[in-house]
């Protein structure tokens, strides 16, 4: 049923959440991202697609400055979040990442209990006044991660004991717990089986109500299923960006067409 | 014929066998080496191996068993009356060996002849001065039986040496002949020599087992000997350590154990936080530049022999702690103290703890770090709340290994902790450890059969058991930890 | 720290705030971050400080061991005393004991005092002659025995100055301490100053420190490392000859041939445990097996070498296995693929490729063995050895000292001059270790291969 879920075209113009202008990324001497400008809307799922090594993950990691942890990586250009440059010297990446959460390719629950996994973010950011408050946040986040019913009886057990799909939803719940405004997902389903993938995709669609979601994906079908906007990256360039339905039915650039018809990739 | 010469002869036979075997193989193939199963060198190798390996093994066994046999034969000649008051058979046997060696030296030096030895009697000719002339000191007046035993000892040794030469060289020649006769073009010389080489490889690997067996046997044997002379209960539970060389010693392990644990504890208190923080800093924070000199500096610390640390404790740290802390605080005036040894031992352990922790921290997957950073955690939050808890089993393993190192360390405590066996809490007081006492009981001229000397073996066994237990536990924990992330 | 406590800042304030301003909590968290980072830097600082303090202490105490004070005197080798018969017969000369030479030195001293620029100021000349090391007559005797033709000549001879005089020029002995010292008097020190001014007393590089044998308790100035260096060298030969082949053979078996069974497991467990057994336990093993059971001589390099071999084996085996493992399986496959036997593929292809790694590991193992002290104490290497061991192979069975044990030995003596000697010996030991490690690093750099 999911592959038929082609999203309705965005009816009304939504608020711009992230505005990237002329972004360049260098890894040492390698020019990994070239002149990328893109506007990411609020309450929308934006998909980044492209062949492997095209820079889509690198660009995604620029959006919450995860690239800062890599010594040789250098970012130029402007990325504005609600009009504020996130690469401004005054910006603390720690504060930024609380606003722009991230979910990774492989589920990476901490070797702690399920409860502590979720509570980790709220604790470090000081989102709960007391234990009861924290309990509420944990429950709310797990519900949003669509995993509450499966784990509510074993919150004190280690998160690493869950199945792959449950782990990934736990990680999504963990990211949601810090009340971010943007959720970045780096191929969140690539390590999951089809059933778990379906569950996560359903979750992503629900999250769109409250967040701006950016998802990097390898699978064009997945992009078509979950996203409203799609950006196609090729060799570090943003080739085409637009409504998902338009990209998949009527691509402008010949490279996009080759990719979605399977001639390159 | 000396053992060295016999072995040399065997090796020469093996060498010659190689070339004879090689040419014989070529000859049997009618000069065309293509007719041979293996390359000619392999035929030579089989001959060499067959002539050397069995013969050398016989030689080694012979050398090990010969002293046992002679000792057994000769000690029967010693009557109970020959054993002086307070001495033991083994002490008399030492004298016998000494006299026998002395006679050999005297003969070599030309001051005695074999004929004269034959006629000699201990009480008539003054053997002691005679041996003294050639530089062999004999403790007491030599008794007749002892001298006769020494003579028998010499004769037996000479006979057996000759027998060994005949048998070993005979075995070598027989092996050579046997393998030479087997050579023909279809003989699978390569397979045979490869099997032989593989046997040698296995033999080499078993050296590790032999070493362990040797350690356990030598410790266990002498410890049992000790417990026959001194009650085990007193050894394990007495809180007094007071060896008296006239006998009547108190040999309780408790004060030594206390000193060992106290010094190790101080060392770990010092080394674990510093080593761990250093590892964290180097792997998570340090810039390339800092790393490029800090890492080698810490590695140098690891390569310095413990005697150097010992000297550092003795001439620098000890006086420093005494002059600036112990004396002003009125806590003591000894430069060797628990704190001296503990701090220096701690410095020695820093690189050990830090490199082990480094391995452990690096084994935590990057995904954990990413997950934490992605949620907006700072580096220190990530380290303290994600990485260190995840690495905890590995770190515990590292600390256990460090503890085992600290408990077994000798030179630093010998030179830094002092020699007084005490049960005290004051870290500025000199205390002593198990290893210090092993050294002090086994060095110097001590009578080997007394409980005061044998106690060192019991101490050694205790030390071995404790450190082995810690190591096994640590390795088990670390292995379990690694499996978690593999 | 702050992370554990529940903060009061209301959650709503966070999202309204601008990214460009740090909120209170973030400031606190960043402060905690900076603190933690500082702890790490302090830990590194302590480690490096310890290294610097260690090196400074050793260098400051030990570098003076390489300089030594000598007193030059013209000694008349009086035939009336040394060779009464005038036969120049070596045996007759040898009969004159060391005591017979002391008057010659005193006479030489007396002659110097006749010169106007040196004043004894009431000190007896016999007192003055004590400034020369007690080793002096023995050295003179050795010289005469080697050069009997020089009897009757006057020879310029550099005598070792006594330990206290030497200490005076190195700052260890002062006029005040000499007042309280029965081995030296302030007058002697003043005389030493005069001799120095007259050019008779010089401080030179101390070759004797590297070549002489150990000396007794009251002759620190004559104590040298010769026997210890030779003894350590002999032990290293034994370790190399035994540990390298056995270690390599064991590694080849374990890495290339060993089936997965209980026997292999036992060997593996044994090796990893032996690597962690306290070194003193190996000393006990050596004492019990090699000396008490096999009756090998005490203090002999062969026993020390055997004990150190057993200690070094695990290190060599671990290094060798690592470098064998680093040779890619494709090399083995290639050899097997053209019909070589397993043994041939290992000995012809894998082993040569792993050789640099094996060599590096062996050198590091040797360096470890060179610095090892505790086990050697138990097999009698602490004994006072004055005679050089003879040439190998007999030399392996002669009594000898070892470098680190010599250090320990000197620290057990009361004369403070031995502290200088011990530290100097450490410098020598560290230089050897430095050279060995440098060779290992160069080998690794030159031959390291990455597949």
UniProtKB/TrEMBL annotation, chain A:
- A cellular component annotation (GO) from this entry: plasma membrane
Its domain of life reads Bacteria
Where found?
Answer: Cell inner membrane
Query: How is this protein positioned relative to the membrane?
Result: Peripheral membrane protein
ABC transporter domain boundaries: 18-260
Offer an example of a GO molecular function term for this protein: phosphate transmembrane transporter activity
The main location is membrane
Q: Which GO terms describe its biological process?
A: phosphate ion transmembrane transport
Q: What is this protein called?
A: Phosphate ABC transporter ATP-binding protein
**Function per UniProt:** Part of the ABC transporter complex PstSACB involved in phosphate import. Responsible for energy coupling to the transport system.
- Kindly give the Pfam families that the UniProt entry links to this protein: ABC_tran (PF00005)
Q: What keyword terms does UniProt attach to this protein?
A: ATP-binding, Cell membrane, Membrane, Nucleotide-binding, Phosphate transport, Translocase, Transport
InterPro entries assigned to the protein according to its UniProt record, in alphabetical order: AAA+_ATPase (IPR003593), ABC_transporter-like_ATP-bd (IPR003439), ABC_transporter-like_CS (IPR017871), P-loop_NTPase (IPR027417), PstB-like (IPR005670)
TrEMBL record, chain B:
Sorted UniProt keywords: Cell inner membrane, Cell membrane, Membrane, Phosphate transport, Transmembrane, Transmembrane helix, Transport
Task: Spell out the molecular function terms from Gene Ontology.
Answer: phosphate transmembrane transporter activity
Coiled-coil parts of chain: none
Q: Which SUPFAM superfamilies match?
A: MetI-like
Q: Which GO terms of the cellular component aspect does the record hold? A: plasma membrane
What is the membrane topology listed in the Swiss-Prot or TrEMBL record?
A: Multi-pass membrane protein
The name of this protein is Phosphate transport system permease protein
Instruction: State the organism named in the record.
Output: Thalassovita mangrovi
From TrEMBL, chain C:
Q: Which keywords does this Swiss-Prot/TrEMBL entry list?
A: Cell membrane, Membrane, Transmembrane, Transmembrane helix, Transport
What PROSITE patterns is this protein classified in? ABC_TM1 (PS50928)
Cite a single GO MF annotation: phosphate transmembrane transporter activity
Q: Which InterPro entries match?
A: DUF3333 (IPR024573), MetI-like (IPR000515), MetI-like_sf (IPR035906), Phosphate_PstA (IPR005672)
| The keyword Hydrolase belongs to this UniProt entry's keyword annotation | no
* Listed SUPFAM superfamilies: MetI-like (SSF161098)
Q: Which CDD domains match?
A: TM_PBP2
Pfam families found in the cross-reference section: BPD_transp_1 (PF00528), DUF3333 (PF11812)
**UniProt protein name:** Phosphate transport system permease protein PstA
Mark the transmembrane ranges.
38-60, 233-254, 274-296, 302-324, 345-367, 422-443
The membrane topology term of the UniProt record is: Multi-pass membrane protein
Identify the stretch(es) annotated as Disordered.
Answer: 1-24
Give the classification, highest ranks.
Bacteria, Pseudomonadati, Pseudomonadota, Alphaproteobacteria, Rhodobacterales
Q: Where is the composition biased (Polar residues)?
A: 7-23
The ABC transmembrane type-1 domain covers: 229-440
The answer on whether this UniProt entry bears the keyword Zinc reads no
Provide the Gene Ontology terms for cellular component. Answer: plasma membrane
GO terms for biological process? phosphate ion transmembrane transport
Please give the family membership noted in the entry: Belongs to the binding-protein-dependent transport system permease family. CysTW subfamily.
Tell me the compartments it is located in: Cell inner membrane; Cell membrane
Q: Which domain of life is it from?
A: Bacteria
